Amino acid sequence: MRAIRVMTNLRVADVAAAKSFYTDYLGLSTEEFNMGWVARYTSPDTGANVQLVTRDATAPEDSVISVHVDDVEGAYEEAQKLGYEIVHPLTTESWGVRRFFVRAPDGNVINIAKHRD
User: Fold this and answer.
1) What is the number of alpha carbons within 13 Å of residue 76 lying toward its C-beta?
2) Which of 116, 114, 8 is nearest to 69 (CA)?
3) CATH number at residue 77
4) 41 with 49: CB under 8 angstroms?
5) Over its length of 117 residues, how does the chain's per-residue pLDDT go in tens digits?
6) What's the CA gap between 40 and 32, in Å, rounded?
7) Which positions ≥6 away from 47 have C-beta within 8 Å?
8) Alpha carbon distances (Å) from 33 to 42, 49, 105
9) In this structure, are residues 87 and 42 in contact, taking their beta carbons and an 8 Å threshold?
10) CB neighbours (10 Å) of residue 10?
11) What is the total count of domains within the chain?
């Protein structure tokens, strides 16, 4: 598996209520997307970003980070082969991402994802 990007998923009670801190104060003023339950904010100058998540829409648990990979099917097969717990099976989500959730040995839940080309 080759990680392309790692994104922090910060748990918030309300994306809209938290938005101004991250956009106005921290300068992450570009809203890449906002689905109500998850939104990504990015600095137009540096590319630094964060995702705010209230509760994952389809997975049984929330992830602490999202790892974008070049081969999500291969990553899924490798996780299974290594005996890692699959928290959310490999799924093509309605918003255009193919992903699964895996539990790291330390207990953290990781979202492994690939966006459609």
Assistant:
1) 16
2) 114
3) 3.10.180.10
4) yes
5) 899 999 999 999 999 999 999 999 999 999 999 999 999 999 999 999 999 999 999 999 999 999 999 999 999 999 999 999 999 999 999 989 999 999 999 999 999 999 876
6) 5
7) none
8) 10, 12, 31
9) no
10) 11
11) 1
For residue 67, which of 2, 112, 98 has the smallest C-alpha distance? 112
Question: Which domain does 37 fall in, by range?
Answer: 3-115
pLDDT at residue number 115: 86
DSSP state, 44? T
pLDDT (0 to 100) of residue 117 = 64
Nearest to 6 by CA among 117, 116, 110: 110
Check if the beta carbon of residue 49 is closer than 8 Å to that of residue 82.
no
Helices (H) and strands (E) in the chain, counts: 2, 8
Task: Count CB neighbours of 30 within 10 A.
Answer: 14
Compute the distance between CA of residue 16 and CA of residue 101 in angstroms, rounded to an integer: 25
The structure's pTM equals: 0.88
**Predicted local distance difference test score (pLDDT) of residue 1:** 82
